[in-house]
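We modelled the chain as a single entity of 180 amino acids. Its sequence is:
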Amino acid sequence: MLVRFLLAAVVAAGIVSAQGGEGMGSGGMGRGNTTGSGMGEGMGGGGGMPRRQSKFELFADKLKLKSDQKEEVQTIFSAAMEKAAPVRDQLGKGRQVIAQAMLAKASEDDIKKLLGQYATVSAQMTGIEAEAFGKVYALLKPNQQAKAAQAFEMMSGMFAGGMGGGGGMGRGRGNRGGGE
């Protein structure tokens, strides 16, 4: 029963990660062009569906960041994305290994060992998120700090891959239609 539950959780995490979300694109965090027109944000191209706010934009709105703060936060997040890249790769490979082990009907002890390794890597990603958030928190004014806990919750998985459930700045739908 436990093995089936864990398999379902791993598969669900993989699906959510594969679906992605707003990407970093070449125009900055979360400003990916989702219309498929190849035109950058603000370049006209009326019609089509309205653009959904990126996780970064929601985060900035939650904290009511000023434009200079947004730039600093983008710099912090970009550095965190770079730092998270090898960890993000380990998470993806770990999910695959766990799923393969479960499908191959590996022993429960082997699966527990793989899950433990995955949890360690996942904790590293959480550490990267927390470190980035600490730097962001230091930039905030006292009135902005009041919403900091809610904003930190929004960061969960931000650097891990797809925005739905996790990461996504750098993957997902960003700049789908060509160059910005």
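As a brief sanity check on the tokenised model: Residues 15-44, 162-180 have pLDDT under 50 and may be disordered. The radius of gyration is 18 Å.
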